[in-house]
Amino acid sequence: MHVLGIDAGGTKTVALLADADGHIVGEGRAGAANLQTEGELEVEKTLHTVIDQATDGRQSPAAVCLGIAGVDRQDDARIIRGIMRRLGFRANILIVNDALIALVAGAGANPGVVLISGTGSIAYGVSRRGLAARAGGWGPTLGDEGSGYWIGRRALVAVMREVDRRGPRTNLTPRVLQHFSLPRPESLVAEIYHQPQSRRAVAALAAVVDRARAEGDAVASDIMVHAADELTLAAESVITRLDMRGEPFPLLLAGGMLKESAWLASAVRQRMAEVAPRSQVGPLTQAPAMGAVRLAIAEAGGGARVPPYIHQ
What pTM value is reported for the model? Predict the structure, then answer.
């Protein structure tokens, strides 16, 4: 028996084919698979690519678990199920929020919270009573505070405010122009509004902001401090609603921003010491797709349990 676990993210998509014991026997990798930013057709192409790579001609897996942002919303879940049917999967298909597979990868079936800051951001937790809560994950227009895109967008705004003399001088201006290989700030208009990869390109600016912060730029420092505050607020919301503030539990830090910015991860860790002093804050060391594999094995064995949201 084989199962398939898929982590479909805003930057990359990973599919892992595993045997009944969870040993990985196949792998597929491709780009983003986010409905809100990529669209249904591109998501279908990406999923088709990674599934073909991972299965490599083997017989159809006994169960599939797909972790993807947005499937808490019924319309998005219906679209994803349609895609999976067109790809030939009709039975034993489990479609869950990508934050759940990250939490399962790091905490298994135990209570815990995962805080993700990558291209987007979300906090998600499961209590000892088996109830779930989330905060954030609403996409670049409605939320994603503290994410790479959110940080990059604030850097772009800071550059244009300096150009207009509405904001302070900042070293972000020459750094941002160098990042995009542009001669002047006005050139950012075409670069941001007319390039197909603009969201990921903006998210990549977060590393530029972090370096400017490390070298003492006040504007960059303000952006990063605000990012840490927003991520902590999201985690605090989940922890409070699940009544976990005084309990011991793992709080897993995941996503490219919290992995690549040691300062941001440290700032969140310090803030969480006040919010949930008994929590064990640390990086997610397992690939989120491994959480999808575990849930797929459970699904093949009689049905995985997806924690209901506390408000339900």
Answer: 0.89
